[in-house]
Specification:
Elements lengths: L2 H15 L11 H18 L7 H10 L17
């Protein structure tokens, strides 16, 4: 049985019992994802980590161009 069939059975049961119909499947998905994001940010703050932009900062660190070495030659030329 899929979610829509279960919803139809729940609707029928609610109509027979005179109770409000349940929401459609997927109605609160966005709200649940936002709450999960907020909870993860809260946990990050408690752990002493950055609360926002952690993924973007990690990707920027990986993609950022490497800074050249301050000296163009790693070893100075030998004096003759």
């Amino acid at each position: 049985m899929d979610a829509m069939q279960q919803h139809m059975i729940d609707n029928y049961r609610a109509a027979r019992l005179g109770t409000p119909a349940p929401p459609l499947p997927g109605t609160h998905d966005v709200a649940v994802l936002k709450e999960l994001r907020d909870y993860r940010r809260f946990e990050a703050v408690l752990d002493g980590r950055l609360a926002t932009g952690r993924l973007r900062a990690a990707l920027a660190h990986l993609i950022a161009p490497r800074h050249p070495h301050p000296h163009p030659h790693p070893h100075p030329p030998a004096c003759r």
